[in-house]
Design a protein that fits this description.
The structure holds two protein chains of two kinds. By secondary structure, chain A is mostly helical. Chain A has a domain of 69 residues. Helix content of chain A is 68%, strand content 0%. Chain A contains 17 helices and no strands. In chain A, helix 15 runs antiparallel to helix 16. Chain B contains one helix and no strands. Chain B is rod-shaped, with a radius of gyration of 14 Å. The chains are: A mainly alpha, B mainly alpha. Chains A and B meet through helix 1, helix 8 and helix 10 of A and helix 1 of B.
Chain lengths: 432, 32
Amino acid sequence: MITDIFYSFIIITFMVFGFSRPYVALAAVLWIDTVKPQNTSFSFLSGKPLSLILTAFFLLTLLVNAKKLRKVNNGAFYILFFGFMLWITLSHLNAEFPLYSAIKYDTAIKTLFILFFIPFTISTKKDFDFVLSILYAASSLFITIGGIKSAMGGGGYGISLIGLQGSGFMYSEGSMLATLAVCLIPLSLYLAHYSFLSNKKIFRYYCYLVVFCALTTQIGTAARTGLVVLAVYVLLHLYYTKKKLKGVAFLMVLAVIGSQFITDNWLKRMESIDQGTTTEKSAVGRIVVWRWALDYVADRPILGGGFYAYLANAGKLDQYGQEGEVVISQGGAKAYHNIYIEVLAETGYGGLLIFLGIIVHTLLLNSKKPNPNDPWSTESSKAIKTFTLLYCAGGMFINVAFYPWIYILYTLSVAKNSISSKQVNEEKESRY
Amino acid sequence: MDIGVDSGALLIHVFIILFVIKSFFADSENNE
């Protein structure tokens, strides 16, 4: 009950401030779609169409404030984004399992449609930081829950740290939670030091708490994906840090803090990475599904098999094993556990090409030459780029291609690029 | 233990969201 009152208060606050500011209404939609209070509530908000209400509110603010929207001159963005929306629609219309496909298509197309508006609503650095901070606060809720429980000795392999086990909620899966936790580390450091909130001590401490929880979440989930993503983060951090000694010192502090919470079970699980590709069922199962997917898509190279195409591998996986590997034999279907294979099997090579185009364009937008007069642009680009690379690394082992993060990072990058370009033009004009 | 942690994290979450909104608009007003 009290929780629902708090949530209602947040929703009302967003609506009051968002009516004349579409980016605030957009932040509200991102918040509600991340936290999903309607799914976790036991009181009056339970089952209410909160997402629908806030989305309708956001669309209304777009109409009312149409004159305030900014122009986005980025041809590649339109081609890739509309292209991907069109492609997944065609794949869905040709789906092998149309009824199942409709469930995932419904979520994916709505997500893409709403996220498309991000670059049009964000027009200043502060708006950008505001939307990013709300998104960060929403997703870090799960990391703080998971991190504190892990620090207190909770969790374990296959146990959902945030409750909601078996509910299909994206962060109830250990590998997804572990990946998100690492992805939030660069975002925490950016927001704590370069955003409009960087001079607020309370917010900075919260960001440090999230970094701490991100580390302990790795122990609590005992997900090997988390360790791989953490290793990628270490490499990226060292690469991007100008003062290497400072970078090493920061990583050593993280290692010392994290090592205090390591358990025997976690060590045992991580040691299984070694035997992964031949004798460990979970890892071999994934590789076998990847082989099956490549074979499957050979018959449908253009549009793939539509959403949930992996259902077609039920009872067939034992045919894809190789000598010396543990045999994967199961009656039911096994999911892809890889975003690239997921997109390939479900939308064909055409869809994969556009999907990779979106990732590459995100990285390019954040790889422009740093402007010495604008540390905000340099640091925000670094944070988004690192987040994207970490997510892509984690995506090698989980099915998250149609979850919003890739598209949020892309549209935020387009928005940020427009803001930076506008500033560069203004600087040039003022010089002449 | 779980319920305590969930509630605590939720309280922090509500506080941080409202803090971000308040800081954003307070700063904007000061600038204006």
